[in-house]
């Protein structure tokens, strides 16, 4: 996910406006296939959560947790569908740029 500037900042207007960037993980030196765009996400420290119920409720609850614990969201939230766990959804919240 990214803001409209494509700088991987959080979505705007209470997380309702932004870009969803579907992609795959690849090596840094990989070339993007024809008609694809290579995105290099900056390095962050993440707080991640396993989504076990409603994804938006998990998203909101984690933002509240971040705020209550003196942390800050410093980039766009990433989702990850884990193939080793039969497609289990995780959300990765960047809390510190490395």
Describe this structure as you would to a colleague:
A hairpin with a 5-residue loop joins β2 and β3. The longest helix is centred in the middle third of the chain and has 14 residues, at 55-68. With 98 residues, the protein is α+β, with helices and mostly antiparallel strands. It is built from 1 helix and 3 strands, in the order βαββ.
Detail the topology: elements first, then pairings.
Layout: E1 44-50, H1 55-68, E2 78-82, E3 88-97
Q: Percent of residues in beta strands?
A: 15-25%
Major sheet details:
3 strands, antiparallel
Shape: globular
Helix content: 10-25%
* SS class: alpha+beta
- Indicate the low-confidence ranges by residue numbers: none
- With strands numbered from the N-terminus, the spatial order across the biggest sheet is 1-3-2
The SSE order reads EHEE
Quaternary organisation: single chain
Mean pLDDT: 88
Highlighted features:
single chain, 98 residues, alpha+beta, globular
TL;DR?
Helices cover 14% and strands 22% of the residues.
């Amino acid at each position: 996910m990214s803001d409209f500037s494509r700088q991987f900042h959080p979505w705007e207007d209470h997380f309702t406006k932004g870009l969803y960037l579907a992609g795959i993980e690849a090596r840094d030196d990989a070339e993007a296939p024809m008609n694809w765009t290579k995105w290099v996400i900056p390095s962050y420290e993440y707080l991640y959560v396993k989504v076990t119920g409603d994804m938006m409720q998990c998203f909101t609850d984690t933002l509240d947790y971040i705020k209550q614990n003196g942390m800050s969201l410093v980039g766009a939230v990433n989702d990850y569908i884990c193939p080793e766990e039969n497609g289990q959804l995780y959300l990765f919240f960047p809390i510190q740029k490395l």
